[in-house]
Amino acid sequence: MRDHHSPHREHGDGRDGFEKRPGRERGGRGPRVFAPGDLKLLLLALIAEQPCHGYDLIRQIEGMFDGAYSPSPGVIYPTLTFLEESELITGDAEGGKKRYSVTEAGRQSLAKQAVALEGVRMRIDVSKRSLRGHDRPAEIHEAVHNLRHALQLHHGRWSPEEIQRVATLLNNTANAIVDGPAVPSTQEKAND
Q1: Cβ neighbours for 1, distance < 8 A, ≥ 6 positions apart
Q2: Cβ burial, residue 15 (10 Å; 0-12/13-18/19+)
Q3: pLDDT tens-digit readout, 51-85
């Protein structure tokens, strides 16, 4: 499944699905999670298990990593386009969103690459353990996940009022996290 002529490759062009996060290797990006061809094979396998949308695939992969890694849409959708152009999957647009299904050629490709797919799944387990060192508590991951989901529900339909409301909420939340909880002063404790 390697394609060195594809407009998208998981590596080599620096796009590996990690969003920029400070303090990580390679100029602020995280460590490589997928070897070349791994993401294509994994997406094909996930679609073969159950037809789904691109967003569902992002969520499934995020779940495989217990929230420690989330592939960016900028990596997922070009890979889905490649798989579709290779006739390994088909995309059926319903309600403006494409739902992907595996083709017979895709099933045959998966059967031929069963050992490689097992290797991908093993590498995911290893990567997941190494990423946990950079992990936040599960409760925080869940909250961040809920925030991402809420923001994605807008699908680009942002009124000026909604932009201001959400920006204010997010900025206030960020400031509250940085400032930490209000700690009563010694004088306030003495008055209690």
Answers
A1: 37, 40, 41, 44, 109, 113, 116
A2: middle
A3: 999 999 999 998 888 777 888 898 999 999 999 99
